[in-house]
UniProtKB/TrEMBL annotation:
InterPro entries assigned: AB_hydrolase_Est10 (IPR053145), AB_hydrolase_fold (IPR029058)
Alphabetized PANTHER family for the sequence: ESTERASE ESTD (PTHR43265:SF1)
UniProt GO molecular function: carboxylic ester hydrolase activity
Annotated protein name in UniProt: Uncharacterized protein
Amino acid sequence: MCTPWYQFLYKTDPATYFGKVACPVLVLNGSKDLQVDASKNLPTISKAVKAGGNPHVTVKELVKLNHFFQESETGHPNEYASLKETFSPTALTVMPTWITTQIK
């Protein structure tokens, strides 16, 4: 936690970078993600992108998915290795559907 990388992470405000994104944005977060809280991060990211003048942001909280977009019971990191699913079919469906709507 004391390495330069972690210190940079703690001192950096991601809103600065999200506010500079000009292309359409898809933000996905699992509801069971214990590392990145969907209820706090999704609205914050959306707000930052829009504050930069980009109205093209879509946010989705994916039910039962953990940090790695695997369906899980608890979302706890000690559960990761025991899950057979590598990546949720739900997440894999959301992404190409969103991309298709962007290119129409």
